[in-house]
Amino acid sequence: MFDIDVLLPDLRDILSAVPPTLAMALAIFVLSTLIGSLFALIEYRSIPVLRELVLAYKITFKGVPMVIVIFLAYYGLPPALQAFGRLFGLQFNAHSLPNWVVLIVAVAACVAAFQAEVIKGALNSFDHGQADAAKSLGYKSGQLFRRILFPQVVVAAIPDLTNSIMVIMKALSLGFAIEVVDIFAQSQLTAALNFYYLEAFVIAVVIYMLIAYIVTQIADRTEGALRLRS
Question: I need a labelling partner for 160 at 20 to 30 A (CA). Which of 79, 150, 176, 224 fits?
Fold first, then answer.
């Protein structure tokens, strides 16, 4: 039976995981978008060798399940950092690396492959006739990028970037496999104490829905404001 009396105490426990979950999601979003943008520019400009490396990266990280990447990072990242540090004479214990850092690196590496496609699609949607017109008016490359290309690319990419935020939020639930506690993991831990699993997961669903609603509203208003400016 569904017990309403446990909802409030369970809600307090699960809400404690919201700030760290949002912080990790934001860090992954920023990192993956920066990496994805760099990859998209490499493909957009068809830079030899680098373009082939980017394609290989995207095929790898889009094809391998994210949970495998998380475990590879969990077991492989500390020794890799340790070996890299020795090359430069640095002495530190990479095995003390927090699990949440490993999770951020692993998820960002996977999401970057998809972000690259989003940014590349936005770049390809840009009308090159506008660039030619701007150059004929004396616009320099920096002015062209800042005033014409960048605003339009951002507007075109916002819907898919918004979806990627929610994908990241859901992907963070895989972090429980390496003992990183997010909203989902906290709901499991809370339910394990009182055995009211249904109630805990219902609360988690509501929290995820509220976050999705807020993110969507922010994205829609941002997109509308940028469309007015551009």
Answer: 176
Domains of the chain with bracketed CATH: 4-229 (1.10.3720.10)
Q: Convert the pLDDT of each residue in 179-196 to its tens digit.
A: 999 999 999 999 999 889
Task: Record the pTM.
Answer: 0.90
Contact at 8 Å (CB) between 14 and 183? yes
With 70 as the cut, is the pLDDT of residue 218 above it?
Answer: yes
| CA of residue 140 relative to chain centroid, distance | 33
b/e 142-172 (16+ beta carbons within 10 angstroms → b):
eebeeebbeebbbbbbbeebbebbebbbebb
Residue closest to 187 by CA, chosen among 18, 28, 73 = 18
Would you say 28 and 104 are in contact if contact means Cβ atoms under 8 Å apart?
yes
Least confident of 3-17, 122-136, 167-181: 122-136
For 25, the token pair is 């999601």
